[in-house]
Amino acid sequence: MTKIIVKGSEKTSSFPSVSVGVHKARCVKVIDLGTQRNEFEGKVSWKPQLLVIWETPDQTNDTSEPLTISKFYTKSLHEKSKLSIDLTSWRGRPFSATEIKAFDIAKLVGVECLLNVIQGKKRTQIGSIMPLPKGDKIAEQYHTSVLFDLEEFQKGKKETFNQLSEGIRKIILSSKELEGLEVGDDNNGSTTIGQEPVPF
Predict the structure, then answer these.
(1) 117, exposed or middle or buried, with CB in 10 Å at 0-12, 13-18, 19+?
(2) How many helices (H) and strands (E) does the chain have?
(3) Pick from 18, 127, 180, 192: most CB atoms within 10 A?
(4) Rounded distance, CA 19 to CA 27, Å?
(5) Number of CB atoms found within 10 A of residue 1's CB
């Protein structure tokens, strides 16, 4: 019997996704998004957020460029926060009381790991992060390291900002800080979230 196949009109993304599974990866970008507006069940709140981006050398596009995958975080090291859970798993141990008070999030850039990638509603996403086993090798870094500090941008240093994609720049420009609104003196809003090499 002849089949007549009707194809949907959905656009195929020009950006291939990292496939489901465990992949070697390296953090290449840490971006301070500032204090972002969140709305849930009609209630509006403002939360300081980060965007962390990894490259996956074993997952490439048509030009052999490593794919990247990212995750948004609220800048908080409360033990139940997504950032704390992921970093604890990545480090292989919890933060000490001292580290929680002074952990420099910039230490993540260049650090290797294993990413457990799972299927999300629309695209694949990071389910968990684990340390790269000792002795395991990963290809050399491909993407340029980027560390964006909103405070530096506010001081007029725009070089790093201009390296970011248009979508990320729009998110940053929508932050409470850049709308000219007052931002409370909240420790969670600092880009400094220990001084501990395990592994960062």
Answers:
(1) buried
(2) 5, 6
(3) 18
(4) 17
(5) 2
Q: Measure the CA–CA gap between 173 and 179, rounded to whole angstroms.
A: 7
pLDDT at 40: 83
Query: Count of alpha carbons within 13 Å of 78, Cβ hemisphere only?
Result: 10
- Cis peptide preceding 48, ω within 30 of 0: no
The Cα–Cα gap between 131 and 38 comes to 31
Q: Which ranges of the chain have pLDDT less than 50?
A: 3, 7-13, 181-197
CB 109 within 8 A of CB 145: yes
Q: How far apart are CA 28 and CA 30, in angstroms?
A: 7
Give the per-residue pLDDT at 99: 87
pTM score: 0.81
Beta pairing, strands 21-40 & 146-148 = parallel
Q: What is the pLDDT of residue 199?
A: 55
Q: Give me Rg for the CA atoms of the chain.
A: 19
Q: Domain residues of the chain, as ranges?
A: 22-178
**H-helix or E-strand containing 34?**
strand 21-40
Please provide residue 158's backbone torsions phi and psi, each rounded to the nearest 5 degrees: -110, 0
Instruction: Pull the structure tokens for residue 168.
Output: 């990320």
Bridge pairing between strands 124-130 and 112-119: antiparallel
